[in-house]
Specification:
It is built from 2 helices and 19 strands. Helix content is 7%, strand content 34%. It is mainly β and 328 residues long. It has a single domain (7-312), classed as Jelly Rolls (Sandwich), CATH 2.60.120.10. It has helices spanning 7-24, 322-325, and strands at 37-39, 45-48, 69-74, 87-92, 103-105, 144-152, 157-166, 173-177, 181-188, 191-195, 198-202, 206-210, 216-220, 225-232, 256-259, 270-276, 279-285, 292-297, 302-305. The strands form 4 sheets. Strands 1-15-19-12-9-14-7-6 form an 8-stranded antiparallel sheet, with helices on one face.
């Protein structure tokens, strides 16, 4: 369904999606809060939570509407060809750089360098990771554990596979990953993910993608949450070509959902955790980082319901070949 932009990542991203579908058949669907979304994959989206917040005919005017600050979040070099260029303009209440200096912190069991990792030809199996206890609760970031990977975040090659398990929400705390995009696959428990572009409600049976460099916060909608993460160091996730299948089937672009703009204007002490070249760093700011009033671009988070995946040869809910249903 989703593939990354090299063949090694393509194989493993497909495996992760298959694993999620398999897990869904044994997992009760969670109930996450509903939010509004824009439909499509790879579109240039436009969204504003206040009418007129997007500048007309300009990206970075000298004075933005409502006195907002214009920032561009780039997912590629800005000189890349148009069909490969990834970016989003964010119009926010305060500049995102208003924070204290970053301080390196303990990264726990997170790993991003695999060139010297132990290897084995044996098949490996592990039991589900235990949930954090009530006496030692953990949020999404604190419950991250690396399982395996390839390449290195520092050289932007390969990927990392992680498991998360948590029993509390991230309160006045956000996370951003400068090393790669995160494909999150919930196994148990629903997630309510707040991003700089808006909210994503993600339950088991769904997947979501958070772009590299975008800040987000995970709130738990159930007592315990657990799932998988595929972290891509190189390139971006994209839909593979359908080849002889034709124009329809598998994952249709219109079934991917991107959040509408949502902002909060809060003056509160906020902790910012950033993963950079495999290490964790902490900073603080005195306002919420989720103060983006409007945005436009194609570098955005999204989610996808795996039940919309139309497999071939089974005709489970749709016929991909329009010729079979056409009349002479």
């Amino acid at each position: 369904m989703l593939k990354a932009t090299n063949s090694y990542l393509h194989r493993h991203a497909g495996l992760l999606v298959y694993l999620s579908a398999l897990l869904f058949s044994y997992t009760q669907l969670g109930h996450a809060a509903e939010h509004e979304y824009l439909r499509g994959f790879g579109n240039h989206f436009t969204s504003e939570s206040l009418e007129g917040a997007l500048p007309a005919n300009q990206n970075s005017p000298q004075r933005c509407p409502y006195g907002l600050y214009a920032e561009q979040l780039s997912g590629t070099a800005f000189t890349r060809p148009r069909d490969k260029n990834k970016y989003t303009w964010l119009y926010r209440i305060r500049p995102s750089v208003i924070h204290t200096a970053y301080i390196k912190i303990d990264k726990g069991l997170i790993r991003s360098e695999f060139s010297h990792a132990s290897i084995t030809p044996n098949q490996l199996l592990w039991k589900p990771f235990p949930y954090p206890t009530d006496s030692q609760p953990k949020d999404f970031v604190e419950g991250l554990v690396t399982i395996t990977g390839s390449g290195s975040a520092g050289t932007k090659t390969g990927l990392g596979i992680h498991i998360y398990s948590a029993n509390r929400s991230m309160e006045n705390k956000c996370f951003s990953n400068a090393d790669g995009g995160l494909l999150i696959v919930p196994q148990e428990g629903a997630l309510d993910i707040q991003t700089e572009c808006g909210f994503l409600a993600v339950s088991p049976g769904e997947i979501c993608m958070i772009p590299r460099g975008m800040r987000f916060r995970v709130a738990t909608k159930d007592p315990n949450i657990r799932g998988y993460i595929c972290e891509v160091y190189e390139g971006h996730f994209e839909l593979p070509n359908l080849g002889p299948i034709g124009a329809n089937g598998l994952a249709n672009p219109r079934d991917f959902l991107t959040p509408v703009a949502h902002f909060e204007d809060l003056e509160v002490s906020y902790t910012v955790i950033t993963k950079f070249s495999g290490e964790l760093f902490r900073s603080t700011m005195e306002h919420s980082p989720f103060d983006v009033v409007a945005y436009h671009g194609n570098y955005v988070p999204f989610k996808y319901d795996l039940s919309n995946f139309c497999a071939m040869n089974t005709v489970n809910f749709d016929h991909a070949d329009p010729g079979a249903a056409s009349k002479p």
